[in-house]
């Protein structure tokens, strides 16, 4: 049993990887007692983000083992501390990637905690008390209420879970570029996975023309029929890529692996913007010609702030936007991670932590 930080008296059952094989196995550990600003949440569901895969395999060289992944958490509040505002026992709650930040810098003060340089994550982070954070592949979590959001009543708890990371990560760049409930634009989404499929749904809900750029021809029919994509470009098809040149105002790149940005940039109109949210562990190739000939911009973004996360959840409630999920049991996490490696999921695995039905 790990972790001996004082006050960490609550024994929790979870699932962890012990080394870079990434193999997940049951793991019992301690969490802190519910402090004055904390809420305790009985976890019902947790999405399996590709980041979990990067982290359990130590792709980014920063993993502290044993690691309990999971930052797409939904559950029910079972305890609230006396300083907690806006939450009560019984509330449907969500936790994403953020566990702590300094609360004093300009970013924290302007609800962009995600850019605080002392940001700590829900797992594989160091909390204020010096303890290592453990994520949502576990039965229960204690979180500071300022990093918790409400899950609207209209959203099912399983299909809403991936919104807490995948959803807000693609929502924030759209918001930053004035693409929420705004004038119709041509937007592209590269990579139709967990993040990408939510981006398509947002793009359509907000009234845009959405083009998917994918390595998987087999995803086209569903992308169009089920997700509502207007166009589908197979990135290895040079004719389709040629036809797509200079057609898009904005592109969101969600690809988890190494790839060249040159062909993607060519799809942008002059002055267009490419936002990278996918987190390849290798440097991406960035040729200068598509940049300079098209006065194009490449930038990145990490998740979103807490205010944006709640705003995104509320908008999903309003537009009835859910994730397309495949629910798995905790015993099947390794199989699910293996399928995620093989790009065999439509479009997000969600672990049924509580052993409940999806009607919650
Ligand atoms: P995912 O479900 O595995 O989706 C990634 C998609 O990328 C795949 O479905 C596939 O789509 C495409 N792809 C995979 N390998 C490729 C390759 N070699 N070349 C080109 N395309 C490839 O992963 P996810 O959960 O959406 O996460 C995507 C990335 O975003 C990960 O790196 C994750 O760590 C990162 N992430 C970043 C943030 C942030 O805050 N910036 C937040 C969450 C996740 P097609 O089959 O359509 O090609
Ligand atoms: Zn994630």
UniProtKB/TrEMBL annotation:
Keyword Metal-binding set for record: yes
Keyword terms, alphabetized: Metal-binding, Oxidoreductase, Zinc
Domain Enoyl reductase (ER), residue spans: 17-351
SUPFAM superfamilies the record matches: GroES-like, NAD(P)-binding Rossmann-fold domains
GO process annotations (BP): lignin biosynthetic process
Cofactors demanded by this protein: Zn(2+)
Keyword Nucleus appears in the UniProt entry: no
Gene Ontology MF, one: oxidoreductase activity, acting on the CH-OH group of donors, NAD or NADP as acceptor
Record-stated family: Belongs to the zinc-containing alcohol dehydrogenase family.
Record-linked PANTHER family: ALDEHYDE REDUCTASE
Annotated protein name in UniProt: Enoyl reductase (ER) domain-containing protein
Native species: Linum trigynum
